[in-house]
Amino acid sequence: MQMSSVGLALRALVAAGLLAPLLALAQGTVQHLSGTLSVQRPDGAVRLLAERSEVFVGDVIATERDSYAQVRFTDGGQVTLRPSTQVRIEGYGYDERRPEGDNFAMQLFKGGLRSITGLIGKRTSNRGAYRLVTSTATIGIRGTDYSAIDIPAPAAGESLPAGSPPPGVYVTVADGQIAFISGGVEQLVGIGQVAFSGNINLPPQLIPPPPNLPRVSPPPSFGQTLKPTSINAGTNTECVVQ
What confidence tens digit (pLDDT) does each residue in 72-121 have? Predict the structure, then answer.
């Protein structure tokens, strides 16, 4: 039986050792899901995701109301999305043989997330290997159990809920240190400190802890459907946008 041109091409790729990299294009996999998770691909296609679905650079991932989802990346990092959250994977690079090429970039449009960092940014001297972009500031990891909360300004004719902090991005650190960058100024935030950025063009400030900041808190049953894998490369990071 004559082999097709596609079959011959695949055989050539296997022989050259090039097929595996072409097939291993996914940057992450949906590890746990409770509710509805969708993705918009860079070509505009929208589809629903399930546990073990793959995600890629350029994907915009969104959870619906009352839904939680956890994505595990190839470097061992994990990102858990709370209800009504939307993020985009802006960039990702991980090769266990080349730590100098590590990079992770994600943009948080709305909602909130909790992240357990993986090997990216931990095994290289590149301080910019990891970044999370929010509405008024960029967060870089320096070591690393932190939370970030984005309180948006109310729409015209509306007001913030009673007791809500002023609009802007707040960061707090429970362990290690982060770099909070806004207005071209990098503010280091350490354990027990709180920093605030109210405008992307103004420097952040260290402030007293404000009351009533929201938290990411998945239900206790979330993540129990699959057994965790063996890689554990980092500590907790948390980010919330109301």
Answer: 999 988 888 888 889 999 999 999 888 888 999 999 888 788 777 788 87
Please provide residue 85's backbone torsions phi and psi, each rounded to the nearest 5 degrees.
Answer: -115, 145
- Sign of the dihedral through C-alpha 207, 216, 94, 108: negative
Torsion angle, alpha carbons of 228, 234, 240, 241, to 10:
-100
Cβ pair 222, 33 in contact under 8 A:
no
Extract the tokens encoding 42.
């860079």
Structure tokens that stand for 6 in this block: 């596609």
Phi, psi at 40, each rounded to 5°: -110, 120
Cα–Cα distance for residue pair 73/93, rounded to 1 Å: 10
Contact yes or no for 101/121 (Cβ under 8 A): no
